[in-house]
């Protein structure tokens, strides 16, 4: 292992910031200048330092990568989904990084999807888009839109070759295979077709990367002739566009963190003026789904965990209750089919599906056997159907696709993701592993759930190593999920735990509200309480516990490093939001203004400023005995800019130089890291090798 020191970062004149009478010096602000060769040289030097410091793990990284690869069916085919007269699916091919998007005509009397067990192409398939061909010559590739027109003739798709989430939108004629001259640069996620496929709606972003305009494009014309359908001037709000499942209406979704508004355009009259379903009211959130003569409205108006109502589709007005508010049961979304409604619910920390027959009959919840699981709707593009496609998984059950008969209530397993034998020939058996829920007690007496999975026979005497994962922001729930890469940890005796801390949505809207704004510190203290509980309960010990989180979960990692450095042997922070105060103070940066309803506005409110300054990781680096820290970022990330972890690591080295801190920057990627599946596996192998090294299992 090298004994050289990394390149020092504080080589420029520091900047000063004054807010509410407080002067703060930032020695590393120069790292935010992305186009400065010195910044790039610095990041490259950090990458070289990280590679040198982890060179002894190169063999283990290769071993872990091979375990993921061997356990994955590389040539594979998704369960086809029917839309109109075609089955749509995606194939992967061994040795290729990206998926191949295809369709095949539905054959007479074919009511169930054709399944290819070995992943081979279906007989008679049409290749719509091959990601591998599109990605040729590029280090990064991502699809934004992939939208088939209602008549099945056109495909609207968009591509990003840098990771900055600005896409170029194109249209392909699937009847001829011809790529039309239509080309629209600088678009965002979200498209919607008119009923006759003559027009396409799309979204663009402003200088702060906020989706703020919906446009209408006439197929076959130049992008310069496109028309703005809606421009959102309030910088707190994002816009999106989608076509309802019924294909009757184009929805323009306008939302901040706390408030929403939906406007509709008849898909058969795409040049019509958008009609407002209900004007925005501060603090009222609602979403809309079309169903026959009505619009279904899922809302929180006087309903903390949301209620379901409807209004006339011809003349939207008063909301008529359909499902009353039930505290503790969070209604998350509603999907409308001709004869049934399906409501996605969350109760007792678990997801579920509730079916409501339209023409009478009792509502019922679909039952699942495992005590910990995640269930949700898969692709269901057909409005008139008697079957529901759903996806199910748990910490020990691989991703499983089912068809559910909405009349007989019979559930048919179509396919479970295969887990192939590992390099040693070991066959995966779910019964070799255990999953369970435990509860930690937070400082204020709140019980915080923890989900755990481990190999059967793992000791409960404090000797087992453990990884604890957390997020805790934006009401995002870390529901149980299966991971092939995680098996490499479990089979080496590592316990994997997920802390369902406040700020997430696992226990309803109140769980979220009690972990944001001026209650944000609950997120961090909950996580520390979970870590301490795992040690106290004999699951592990502090010197055998590594914490991991990304994005806002990276903020969590930085905060708990300052709060309880003794609780962890190592911390993995991926694309971490660790310079939160400086970012939220700068309205010109991507996403800042839209974030004020999540964190507070420190520019306008001195209380918010003081509160954020008291927890944001970069501001609170101190001369502490920090655990080893691995920070990972991407140069083209537009959500959490690369300089946040770069500055954080530099300050850690300067203030607490005895620590072991590594920074790894993907120079051609965005917020999600490497885009190709093999590159993503290598990154996971890198993280797991470092983690096992910290846990003494390398």
UniProtKB/TrEMBL annotation:
Domain Peptidase S9 prolyl oligopeptidase catalytic as annotated: residue spans: 481-696
Q: Which SUPFAM superfamilies match?
A: alpha/beta-Hydrolases (SSF53474), Peptidase/esterase 'gauge' domain (SSF50993)
Using the record's annotation, list all stretches that form the Peptidase S9A N-terminal domain: 8-417
Q: Which GO biological process annotations does it have?
A: proteolysis
Q: Which UniProt keywords apply?
A: Hydrolase, Protease, Serine protease
Keyword Protease in annotation: yes
The question of whether Cell membrane is a record keyword is answered with no
- Gene Ontology terms, MF aspect: peptidase activity
Q: Which family does it belong to?
A: Belongs to the peptidase S9A family.
PANTHER family referenced in this protein's UniProt entry, alphabetically: PROLYL ENDOPEPTIDASE-LIKE, PROTEASE FAMILY S9A OLIGOPEPTIDASE
Q: What is this protein called?
A: Protease
| Species of provenance | Micromonospora andamanensis
């Amino acid at each position: 292992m090298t004994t050289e020191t990394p390149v020092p970062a504080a080589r420029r004149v520091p900047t000063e910031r004054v807010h509410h009478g407080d002067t703060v010096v930032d020695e590393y602000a120069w790292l935010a200048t992305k186009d400065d060769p010195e910044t790039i040289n610095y990041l490259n030097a950090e990458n070289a330092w990280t590679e040198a410091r982890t060179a002894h793990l190169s063999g283990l990284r290769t071993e872990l990568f091979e375990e993921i690869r061997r356990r994955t069916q590389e040539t594979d085919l998704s369960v086809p989904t029917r839309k109109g007269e075609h089955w749509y699916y995606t194939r992967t091919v061994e040795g290729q990084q990206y998926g191949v998007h295809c369709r095949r005509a539905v054959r007479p009397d074919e009511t169930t999807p054709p399944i290819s067990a070995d992943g081979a192409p279906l007989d008679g398939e049409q290749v719509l888009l091959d990601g591998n061909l599109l990605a040729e010559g590029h280090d990064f590739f991502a699809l934004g839109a992939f939208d088939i027109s209602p008549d099945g003739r056109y495909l609207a798709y968009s591509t990003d070759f840098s990771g900055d989430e600005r896409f170029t939108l194109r249209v392909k004629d699937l009847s001829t295979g011809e790529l039309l001259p239509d080309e629209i640069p600088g678009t965002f996620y979200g498209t919607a077709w008119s009923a006759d496929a003559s027009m396409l709606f799309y979204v663009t972003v402003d200088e702060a990367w906020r989706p703020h305009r919906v446009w209408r494009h006439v197929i076959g014309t130049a992008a310069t002739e496109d028309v703005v359908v809606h421009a959102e001037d309030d910088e707190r709000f994002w816009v999106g566009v989608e076509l309802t499942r019924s294909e009757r209406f184009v929805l323009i979704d306008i939302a901040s963190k706390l408030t929403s508004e939906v406007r509709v355009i008849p898909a058969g009259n795409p040049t019509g003026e958008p009609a407002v379903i209900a004007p925005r009211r501060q603090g009222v959130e609602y979403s809309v789904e079309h169903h026959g003569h009505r619009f279904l409205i899922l809302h929180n108006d006087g309903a903390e965990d949301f209620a379901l109502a409807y209004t006339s589709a011809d003349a939207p007005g008063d909301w008529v209750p359909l499902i009353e508010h039930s505290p503790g049961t969070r209604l998350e979304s509603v999907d409308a089919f001709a004869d049934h409604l399906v409501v996605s619910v969350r109760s007792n920390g678990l997801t579920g599906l509730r079916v409501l027959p339209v023409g009478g009959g009792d509502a019922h919840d679909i039952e699942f056997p495992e005590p910990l699981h995640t269930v949700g709707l898969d692709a269901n593009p057909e409005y008139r159907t008697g079957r529901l496609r759903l996806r199910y998984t748990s910490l020990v059950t691989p991703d499983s696709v089912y068809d559910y008969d909405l009349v007989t209530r019979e559930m048919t397993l179509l396919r479970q993701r295969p887990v192939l034998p590992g390099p040693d020939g070991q066959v995966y058996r779910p019964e070799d592993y255990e999953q369970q829920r435990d509860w930690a007690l937070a400082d204020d007496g709140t019980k915080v759930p923890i989900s755990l999975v481990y190999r059967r026979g793992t000791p409960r005497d404090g000797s087992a190593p453990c990884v604890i994962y957390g997020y805790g922001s934006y009401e995002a729930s870390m529901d149980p999920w299966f991971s092939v890469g995680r098996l490499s940890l479990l089979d080496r005796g590592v316990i994997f735990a997920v802390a369902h801390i406040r700020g997430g949505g696992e226990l309803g809207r109140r769980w979220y509200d009690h972990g944001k704004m001026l209650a944000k510190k609950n997120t961090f203290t909950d996580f520390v309480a979970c870590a301490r509980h795992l040690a106290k309960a004999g699951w592990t010990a502090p010197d055998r516990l590594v914490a991991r989180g990304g994005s806002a979960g990276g903020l969590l990692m930085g905060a708990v490093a300052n709060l309880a450095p003794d609780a962890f042997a190592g911390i993995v922070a991926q694309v971490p939001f660790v310079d939160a105060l400086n970012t939220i103070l700068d309205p010109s940066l991507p996403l800042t203004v839209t974030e004020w309803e999540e964190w507070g506005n420190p520019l306008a409110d001195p209380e918010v400023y003081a509160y954020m300054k008291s927890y944001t990781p970069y501001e609170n680096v101190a001369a502490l005995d920090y655990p080893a820290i691995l920070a990972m970022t991407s140069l083209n990330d537009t959500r959490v800019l690369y300089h946040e972890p770069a500055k954080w690591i530099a300050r850690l080295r300067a203030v607490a130089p005895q620590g072991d801190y590594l920074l790894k920057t993907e120079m051609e990627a965005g917020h999600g890291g490497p885009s190709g599946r093999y590159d993503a596996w290598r990154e996971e192998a890198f993280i797991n090798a470092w983690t096992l090294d910290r846990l003494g299992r390398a």
